[in-house]
């Protein structure tokens, strides 16, 4: 899936897969929505998390069955990188997590990146949250 911009309730969100985000796509500062519904997805997010920090990520919003574990791993990465201004959150409830991402993550004046390609349920939850 190519990177695309989707508008949810007036908020533009760059949507793609973790392995498809390129430095040229990113405008800092930004918050990132990531999904960890299994170990493979958790590893995929952790594989790009360092780059996202370097590019100016201010908040990681984690969703899915493994969201708490991903959150803990990202906390360690943030601490090891001495980027203590970066926030990490986790939600197992997709609707609540998407609502938080759209309306609270990083404040209203921050760019939003959803690394959620291949997760139509999350796209649907973002749509519901924006209505």
Features:
Protein-Tyrosine Phosphatase, Chain A, 6-stranded mixed sheet, single chain, 4 helices, alpha/beta, about 130 residues
Write up what this structure looks like.
This protein is 40% helix and 25% strand. It has 131 residues and is of the alpha/beta class. It has a single domain, classed as Protein-Tyrosine Phosphatase, Chain A (Alpha-Beta Complex), CATH 3.90.190. A 6-stranded mixed β-sheet has the order 1-2-6-3-4-5, with helices on both faces. β1 (4-8) and β2 (11-15) form a beta hairpin.
CATH topology: Protein-Tyrosine Phosphatase, Chain A
In the CATH hierarchy, what is the architecture at level 2? Alpha-Beta Complex
Q: Work out the number of β strands.
A: 6
Query: What is the arithmetic mean of pLDDT?
Result: 91
Give the distance, in angstroms, between the N- and C-terminal Cα atoms. 25 Å
Number of spatially distinct domains: 1
| Helix content, binned percent | 25-40%
Shape: globular
Question: Strands of the biggest beta sheet: in what spatial order?
Answer: 1-2-6-3-4-5
- Sheet-strand content, in percent, reads 25-35%
The H-and-E topology, N to C, reads as EEEHEHEHEH
Largest sheet: 6 strands, mixed
Name the structural class.
alpha/beta
CATH level-1 class: Alpha Beta
């Amino acid at each position: 899936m190519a990177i695309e911009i989707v508008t949810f309730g007036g908020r533009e969100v760059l949507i793609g897969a973790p392995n498809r985000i390129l430095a040229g796509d990113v405008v800092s500062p930004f918050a990132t929505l990531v999904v960890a519904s299994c170990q493979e997805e958790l590893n995929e997010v952790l594989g790009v998390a360092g780059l996202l920090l370097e590019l100016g990520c201010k908040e990681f919003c984690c969703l899915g069955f493994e969201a708490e574990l991903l959150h803990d791993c990202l906390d360690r990465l943030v601490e090891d990188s001495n980027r203590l201004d970066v926030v990490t959150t986790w939600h197992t409830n997709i609707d609540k997590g998407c609502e938080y991402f759209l309306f609270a993550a990083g404040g209203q004046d921050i760019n939003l990146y959803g690394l959620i390609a291949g997760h139509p349920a999350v796209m649907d939850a973002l749509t519901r949250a924006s209505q």
